[in-house]
Specification:
CATH topology: Ribosomal Protein S5, domain 2
Radius of gyration: 18 Å
Order of helices and strands: EEEHEHHHEEHHHEH
Number of helices: 8
Mean pLDDT: 93
Oligomer: single chain
CATH class: Alpha Beta
CATH architecture: 2-Layer Sandwich
Strand content: 25-35%
Distance between the termini: 49 Å
Number of domains: 1
Largest sheet: 7 strands, mixed
Shape: globular
Helix content: 25-40%
């Protein structure tokens, strides 16, 4: 344990999946995937202020650029920020609290991991705020309990993800890539998209993905924009359109 701090600001990036293959549903409700994650330059920000009374209070920063109706944004126990702070507190056995201000910049319900980035930034910020002293690997294990994309949001950069996306192997890319992202005017629920995928695949024999196509890795590493465009694939595309 370290000495608690009074105020901490933490950031975590959104992401895109250059490659995303999805296996059949598992008994625990998750799906095995093979993913090539790339962090983007849109970051979620958590500003954590120490509370001695053990309370967790959430607030949405008015400067958030992706929340059209702030009054509908959940700020209670259902928010991943609250869940991440509570999980860390229980794991570390601390009784401190926090005021947690959320500045959102990653499009909501767009498959870019904004909620996971919120959770990751909260774990990092509250770990510093409360002096709980967990290392990145320990935070990653906690993050995996909150969502499959949280461990990558803690890592950033680029990485191959297997299992449910939590078994990560980082990639050292040689240069940055620039992406044009066009958000829809509506969001999609991740559980609903996966449920639609399972319905569309009903009766089919779907293999468990065990690797990312080497060609898409090569295209990202070089980087070769045309080759990358030709090798992008996401099994959730058809389900999302449906």
């Amino acid at each position: 344990m370290n000495e608690p701090k009074n105020f901490v600001i933490a950031h975590a990036p959104g992401k895109i999946n250059c490659y995303f293959r999805v296996g059949p549903p598992r008994e625990d409700g998750y799906h095995d995937v093979a993913s090539l994650y790339v962090a983007v330059s849109l970051f979620e920000e958590i500003r954590a202020t120490l509370r001695q009374d053990g309370e967790l209070h959430l607030r949405l920063d008015e400067a958030s650029t992706v929340v059209d109706e702030p009054e509908t944004f959940p700020l209670g126990p259902g928010n991943l920020v609250h869940q991440a702070a509570q999980l860390l507190r229980e794991h570390a056995g601390v009784n401190l609290g926090a005021d947690l201000e959320i500045l959102k910049r990653v499009p909501i319900a767009g498959g870019m991991g904004g909620g996971s980035a919120d959770a990751a930034a909260t774990l990092v910020g509250c770990n510093e705020l409360w002096g709980t002293g967990l290392d990145r690997e320990e935070l990653g294990r906690l993050g995996a309990r909150l969502g499959a994309d949280v461990p990558f949001a803690l890592m950033g950069g680029a990485a191959i993800g297997l299992g449910v996306g939590d078994q990560l192997a980082p990639l050292l890319t040689r240069a940055r890539t620039d992406w044009v992202l066009i958000p829809a005017s509506y969001g999609l629920s991740t559980p609903r998209v996966y449920a639609m995928l399972d319905r569309l695949r009903a009766g089919q024999s779907i293999p468990v993905p065990t690797e990312v196509d080497p060609q898409v890795i090569k295209a990202l590493m070089e980087p070769d924009a045309q080759a990358l465009a030709d090798t992008l694939v996401n099994d959730l595309t058809q389900a999302s359109l449906a």
